[in-house]
Amino acid sequence: MEKMNELLKKYFNGETTLTEELELKSYFLSGDINAEHELYRPLFETFEEEKCETAFEPLKKVATKQTKIKHIWIKTVSYSGMAAAIVLALWIQRPQQSENYAIIHGQRIDDPEYVQRYAEKKINDMNERIQNGLKPLKNMEAVKENIRDAREKGTLKNEITESDKTGNINN
Q: Domains of the chain: which residue ranges?
């Protein structure tokens, strides 16, 4: 009984070998089944009954249905291919448009000379704005230079004042 419990556990975990499965089937078909295993008996009897069943409908009908489905797929793929070929032909034959263009104020401009002049004008405007923005910094540099000069003059003035007081001139 312990062996059958182990075999059932292995069977439901999918770990049994073919010989172990045959042993289980013969156990359940023997009729000498332990009471705790009665629960699994219909399962193994069903497997044995299915082995004896025969097909009622001929296999040709199944094959016919499969060929119909196959024909549908072939038609679908061929129609898709034709549609793709037509789309490709129309795309190739479309009028060629310039690939170099710019959008200025919401309008497409194809003239490269106009676009270049417009871009140069915008770059010059931006350069002028940057230069105007840097003017206060240049003025700050001049102020720093003046402060530096004033400090140097102030230290020189202090040295002269001290030398007048002491009467010595330091180099």
A: 2-52, 119-166
Residue 82 backbone dihedrals phi, psi, to 5 degrees: -65, -40
Rounded to a whole number of angstroms, the CA Rg of the chain reads 50
Tens of pLDDT, residue by residue, the chain (171 residues): 788 888 888 888 888 888 888 888 888 777 778 788 888 787 777 777 666 666 666 555 555 666 777 788 888 888 898 999 999 888 888 766 657 778 888 888 888 888 889 989 989 998 888 888 777 777 777 777 877 777 777 676 666 676 666 655 554
Angle, helix 18-30 to helix 2-13, in steps of 10 degrees? 120
Nearest CA to 1 out of 43, 36, 25, 39 is that of: 36
For residues 23 and 7, the answer to whether their CB atoms sit within 8 Å is: yes
SS3 135: helix
Residue 72: both structure tokens together:
């549908």
Longest dimension (CA), the chain: 137
